Amino acid sequence: MTKFNHVMVDIETTGTNSTFNAMIQLAAVRFDLNEREIDMSMFDQCLKIPGNRFWAEDTREWWARQDQAIIDKIWSRMRDPKTVLQEFYRWVTRDMRGENLILWAKPSHFEYPFLESYFREYDVAQPFFYRDVNDLNSWCRARGLSNLSSEIEVQGEAHYAINDVLHQIQVLFELMERTDVTTV
Question: What is the pLDDT of residue 183?
């Protein structure tokens, strides 16, 4: 059995429409939910905006109100989107021995459609099956802890995807501890 088959993903984008807006940062961490352990080889890449995708003006205005150093850091690291997706696929599927990957996101109905759209556009295999997607917000609400995410401080800058991923895993592990869930 593969130890790290759970994957927390966070993206930063130019809008909320997965068909027309772009991913500008993709970060992920593989982890073992039962052992509450993370794989230290993390994925954190920034993507150039493809010519067929664009900014939503409300999102551009939102980014303008954020810490400019964050968007500058994203801009300085942008690479070809197809290359990033190919590297992500290799990274996320390494050491897999037939088990399904379990995708986690906050919220999954935002991240998953962007990933699906990009994998399709760049003809890269989709490593996640839609039935194996978990929404962290829903897990927290179902256990009566919908404010848990705001109780735990983000380490580093918020809205920088790798920091958000690590925060989300911390929230999930805390949720498991508080609700005495031992295995998934």
Answer: 57
